[in-house]
Specification:
Elements: E1 2-15, E2 26-36, H1 39-44, H2 53-66, E3 68-69, H3 72-87, E4 91-97, E5 109-115
Parallel strand pairs: 1-3
Antiparallel strand pairs: 1-2, 2-4, 4-5
Helix pairs in contact: 2-3
Length: 117
């Protein structure tokens, strides 16, 4: 299993459990690793057989724009489930950063891994 990755993708969304967070958009930073077999794409040099990270990134940004979750855990679970279903990705590891949530930390967040490698 090969890995296609996206690092440092920034998205704006409504996220947070506190009342003041429900009225603003906040930046999340995402690092993704996605399992994919790159051999077919490489053999024919065809994007149609690759996991198109530009399309995945656009879908993530659209998901974030439409989302309004309280918990980063919920955002992460729903996003990974959507990506696996829409792009037929067998394995995903997502590290989600919520910078600024804890002033003394450079970032906080969650990391999840779903599917089989």
């Amino acid at each position: 299993m090969d890995t296609v990755f996206i690092e440092g993708l920034e998205v704006d969304t409504v996220i947070g459990a506190y009342d003041w967070e429900r009225s603003i958009r906040q930046c999340l930073r995402l690092d993704l690793q996605m399992g994919w077999d790159n051999r077919l794409a490489a053999a024919g040099d065809e994007l149609a057989h690759a996991l198109d990270y530009a399309s995945v990134s656009q879908r993530i940004q659209a998901f974030a724009a439409d989302s309004q979750f309280q918990l980063v855990e919920t955002f992460a679970e729903r996003l990974v489930a959507l990506l696996m279903a829409e792009f037929q990705i067998p394995w995903v590891r997502l590290k989600l950063h919520k910078p600024g949530a804890v002033p003394a930390a450079s970032s906080v967040g969650v990391e999840i891994e779903r599917g089989c490698r």
